[in-house]
């Protein structure tokens, strides 16, 4: 993150990306991308990208985080991941089977 302004100036770099889970892990908060320090660093990254005149993206693991990241000013956001979506849907179906629901 501290190198983000320099990275933004590299010829051919058209957009930047912040991986919340990777950032959280690098900050000592493995698995906790909602940690206040991580979220503050994410906001800072968006501000740095804007100052550098570069679009910046991220990935939102759920609708609430996507909304939060839009509010932070991200230019683009990947919504979840293919694996995450499959796991979430599988868990939803299993819960319905266990509860006897059919709808």
Provide a short characterization of the protein structure.
The protein contains five helices and three strands, in the order αβααβαβα.
How would you describe the overall organization of this protein?
This protein has helices at residues 4-8, 20-26, 36-52, 63-72, 82-99; strands at residues 16-18, 56-60, 76-79. It is mainly α. The protein has one domain (4-99): Alpha-Beta Barrel (TIM Barrel), CATH 3.20.20.60. A three-stranded parallel sheet has the order 1-2-3. It is elongated, with a radius of gyration of 17 Å.
- Given helix and strand content, the structural type is mainly alpha
- CATH topological fold name: TIM Barrel
What is the chain-wise order of helices and strands? HEHHEHEH
For the largest beta sheet, what order do the strands appear in spatially? Answer: 1-2-3
Q: Kindly, what is the distance between the CA atoms of the first and last residues, rounded to a whole number of angstroms? A: 46 Å
Total number of helices:
5
This entry's quaternary arrangement is single chain
- Give start-end ranges of low-pLDDT stretches: none
Q: What CATH first level would be assigned?
A: Alpha Beta
What's the story with the biggest beta sheet? 3 strands, parallel
């Amino acid at each position: 993150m501290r190198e983000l302004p320099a990275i933004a100036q590299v010829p051919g770099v058209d957009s930047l990306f912040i991986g919340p889970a990777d950032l959280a892990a690098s900050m000592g908060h493995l698995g906790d991308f909602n940690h206040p320090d991580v979220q503050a660093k994410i906001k800072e990254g968006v501000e740095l990208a804007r100052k550098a005149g570069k679009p910046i993206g991220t990935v939102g693991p759920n609708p609430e985080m996507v909304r939060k990241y839009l509010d932070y000013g991200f230019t683009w956001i990947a919504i979840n991941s293919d694996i995450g979506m499959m796991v979430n849907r599988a868990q939803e179906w299993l819960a319905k089977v266990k509860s006897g629901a059919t709808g």
